[in-house]
Records
---
Amino acid sequence: MRWIAFCLFAFVSLVLDVSAGNILVLADVRPSFVAVLAVFIALFAPRLSALWACWILGLLVDLNTWMMHGPDRAGPLLGAYALGFAFGAILLLQLRPMLFRRRALTLAVMTFLFVAAAGLIVVAIYAAHGWYPREELHWAQLGTGRELLRRLGIAAYSALLALLLARALVWSLPLWAFRAPSQRAAARR
Amino acid sequence: MARSSRRLQLAFPITIVVTLAVVFLPADWRLPWQRDLAQIVQFPFRPFYDLGNILAARLRPAPSLLDTVSPDHRDLATMIEERDRAQRRFVAEHQHLLELQDQLLQLQQIPPETLRAVRHPIVARITRRSPDTSLGLVELKLPSQLAAAVWPDTTAVYAGVHLLGRTVQQPSGNSCLMLPVVNRASGFIRARVFPKDRPLADGRLIQVHPTGTGAFLADVERDVVFVGDRVRLDDPAWPRSAQAMVLGDVQSVDVNDAEPLRNTITVRPLFHVSQVATVTLLVEGRPESAPGPTRRGEP
């Protein structure tokens, strides 16, 4: 995998998530460009590269997700999205051999699964912090059950976004060089 | 070659274990270094976040009072704004008066001039929003010469009288964090609800709390609050500049099933932080580095 392409795509998708993506907000639900990119990489990249890429993307989301940790303490909680995205990637890597990866619908359905699975891990980690003494992590605006529902909404919205972006992402495949030349020759054979 | 490949394969599980250990650290042990790390990593992204938000503001312009009136009556929007400002000022002064009366009762004759803080408004652009939720903390970009004047708990408003939130933590460099008032971390807020047809009446004291959906809930006695009534802040825990700012309008009044003699009201803010590109920070007291107010005709 060409890591320069990864850096470029990660940069653009993160900027979109943190700024311009705000115009897509519907009732506190918005799609995740970063998640769509993570799913695309998990579908095409070699196993280890896919895992690292998803972990890095999750970490970037963590670094930009600041929360209140008490009445006057704000900061990120590093690791929640990194683990969530890594878990999502592991899930996708198990399903990958059974999929038609270039289909837009595949990317959309896998995005839904990925975001839902990652959301489950993130919510579990945030909820676990609720049990810590002297730690008031304000993460869920709605309570755990409704927060999970909201994340299902994000998963569905991200899947819709994936459906729209799939063509452009598949078109960008040569930029990524997901397979080494020897592997490409083997695949042709 | 095989050894280095095996090392690479081992590195990922080890990283996951380290991530697991870090994610479950208590806040005291992780917050200081994680905040610094986040700020270092965000540094190269900041100009692009800024550009992205400017682009978003162009694509979806922030709501304006002009949207609420027909194109033939655009002058009306200015009058509505002026009316809102005047009403806010009246209510603020009225609340101030009641406060002073209390103090008089306690033989504390403090002149109102010294109590009334000097306000210095700073227009700050939103540069970073939480990728997680639209109700999350947002980062504001402050004018460099005025950044030092902003401190935690500075009030953030939109359209002059609509409360959007407050700053948290000391600004770092030219940026500071703002907690939207509709975020659940804002907790319970004391407010006053004013009848729609009598906006300058005494108002009824209520306690609202954010619902997590961009609105507030409050329990009130039956048949005293109606749809369309205006809710303004009246909470001594908030800065003076925030008092009497508009929290929102009563959107619905429902019977409280647990207590049939009481109603539950939903208060919906007119402006949401996800809709706006800039906010106005009301800094109390004139910042040292800021140019002082000059009278007309003075150089």
Note: The radius of gyration of chain B is 23 Å.
---
Amino acid sequence: MTTEQSMPLEEDAAQWTAKVRTAAARALPPEKLLPDRQPAYLSSAIYVFGALTLAALVIVIGTGCILALEGPTWWHVSSVGLFINSLHLWSVEAMFFFMVIHLWGKFFMAAWRGNRQLTWITGAVTFATSVAAAFTGYVSQTNFDSQWISTQAKDGLNATGIGAFFNVLNFGQMLMWHIVLLPLVVGLLTGLHLLMVRRRGIVPPFALDADGKVARTAEEAR
Amino acid sequence: MTKTRRFNPDRDVSPWSGPLRPYDLLKEVTVAFIVVAVLVVGLAVVFGSPDDKAVTIKSWSTQDAVDFATTAITELDGTSATATYGPPYNNTPDAAQKIGPISLQQLAGVRQPVNTAQDFVLGPLASIAPQNAALSSALATFNAADEATKAKWEASYEKAVAKAEFANGHLVVPPGAYGPVAVMISSLTAMAQSGALDTSMVDQAHFYGTNYTKSLLFVADGTHLETLATNQHLGGDQWGMMNETGNYPGQAWLWLYTMWYQVWPFNGPWGANADALVWALMMGLTLALILVPFIPGLRSVPRWTRVYRIIWREHYRSEGH
């Protein structure tokens, strides 16, 4: 359902801008984008982990921005910097903890059903990209840990040819990936994932037949 | 006539026609943020974060001069791990790993060339030779010698340096026919201990250098870094990369990647190509994770395992199941 205000005048309907707005309003009308009611089956604690992951991501980005303000070696020489780094570390740990539970929860719900494949794919790719983002953070610490991790990790990357272009021993390159490229991708994918969730809604439970078995036909599933 | 697709419970759903209930999404996200913020602040206050100082070439050569000298001679004679690594550092024959008959490592080529003898030993020594007559003479002798003579000196020194000692501020190697090599390695060790042989020298950086490839390779060729790492349970056979210095959780999400290195056949007959094979396997598994919705059998696992009965237990109870 689209609101009347979002529909362009007839003479403007051919505009690119008008077309995009109309399509966006059709795909995600306000009541779908920010709903105040949800299906009754949405009552398990597992549903909270998506929101927890998002909350942790916000803290990861916020603390990362503060570290970026002062530069990559600030946290070695400042107690405030060390504390911000600790917040950054633990928010990353929390984000992965919540994200993995969210992912497994969605797997066991078969949350891709009902034309929600893209929701699943954007989530899985965000997870993989987050692993790369965290890894580049570990090798950008400018301490013993980053020396050891980078000199160990180079072998896997070099063995696949990736290391020739993505050099984990090049601090400058890794820092740029960590604070610009990968957060950008994670941010965009997260946004797309959230829009897909809102567009398709939360997957309903498996429909059961009279015997309590998963319905195998559309008629049984109704 | 259009063909109707057969209903598949692992792919399709019937639109929900049951009741709706109030659900304040923004309130949930806000509460989640507060809970996570409190949790993170608590963990940061109680546990902080580890920050073990980086190993420098100065600290390495000072704390373990013999290991430094042993490594330096292998860089000079071309037998170190880096010198024999293959792409992307050099063209050592048959060094590149393979996945079956294909070597992606070889295909990518040498994109970060490293000449260990020149970059780690001869270049830095040449920079200080004008201030050191003995070293200047040793370098001239070395450079004028033929390859066979150089190899003979280097082999003798490499054998002897294992028995070397560091005493009274000097590297003491048992006497032998090392030609100028003893003076060269001794000078390089002294240079390293003074701090003159550090990242900017080894990496040949401009004023604003940020690429530490060469100095990291040099440090990693020694046993000093590995010993420190093993003491911190970070070795390759200790689930290395996913761990963190101290008692911190590290990159626990890399458990599956790290696990393959600990098990047969990756730690046995496939060991020579383990990195390439583990990566290939992990890329395949990651692709499978992304494409679960389209993989018959795999997408049925949720239905078979019946975990959904726990997740939606209230819903099913309300429906009388």
Note: The first strand of chain B starts at residue 20 and ends at 22.
